């Protein structure tokens, strides 16, 4: 993974982790220990799902650039579907508070998307590949004199 990809990943993961920590504190104050556990689990799920999606999308962009946009749309749809499945699977759990989990899941997902958007907007991504050396001109085809 390139260093600018790692930087973009960190610029999305760090604010998400901070939002998750804040959600854990708020959940602990409002609901108690199970609320804090729910918030931490939700934050870890979001960072894991979105991080894996980011890595898959970057590898797709490198190897199959013509499928990048379609893969991105499919990936986000799959991530949302997996989050709904995860919510449904732990709907009636006693391990953590389900409402604190669900609210934190939505909040940290929104923070991830916002932070990833900000990181992409601040990145200086070239959309035209510059020449390797300025002033290089391709040779004219034909006989040399």
Detailed description of the structure:
By secondary structure, this protein is mainly alpha-helical. Helices cover 73% and strands 0% of the residues. It is built from four helices and no strands. It has helices spanning 3-30, 33-63, 68-89, 98-122. α1 (3-30) runs antiparallel to α4, α2 runs antiparallel to α3 and α2 (33-63) runs parallel beside α4 (98-122). It starts with a helix and ends in a 23-residue tail after the last helix.
Largest sheet: none
Identify the quaternary structure here.
single chain
- Number of helices in the DSSP assignment: 4
Q: How far apart are the termini?
A: 47 Å
The value of Rg in angstroms is 22 Å
Regions with pLDDT < 50 over 5+ consecutive residues?
Answer: none
As a percent range, the share of strand residues is: under 5%
What distinguishing features does this structure have?
145 residues, mainly alpha, 0% strand
Summarize the structure.
The protein is an all-alpha fold and 145 residues long.
List the helices and strands and how they pair.
Blueprint: H1 3-30, H2 33-63, H3 68-89, H4 98-122
Helix pairs in contact: 1-2, 1-4, 2-3, 2-4
């Amino acid at each position: 993974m390139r260093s600018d990809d790692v930087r973009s990943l960190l610029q999305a993961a760090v604010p998400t982790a901070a939002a998750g920590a804040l959600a854990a504190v708020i959940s602990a104050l409002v609901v108690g220990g199970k609320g804090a556990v729910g918030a931490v689990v939700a934050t870890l799920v979001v960072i894991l799902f979105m991080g894996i999606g980011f890595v898959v999308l970057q590898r797709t962009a490198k190897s199959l650039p013509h499928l990048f946009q379609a893969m991105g749309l499919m990936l986000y749809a799959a991530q949302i579907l997996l989050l709904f499945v995860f919510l449904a699977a732990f709907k009636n759990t006693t391990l953590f508070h389900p409402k604190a989990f669900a609210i934190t899941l939505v909040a940290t997902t929104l923070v991830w998307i916002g932070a990833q958007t900000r990181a992409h907007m601040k990145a200086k991504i070239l959309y035209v590949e510059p020449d390797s050396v300025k002033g290089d001109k391709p040779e004219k085809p034909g006989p040399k004199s």
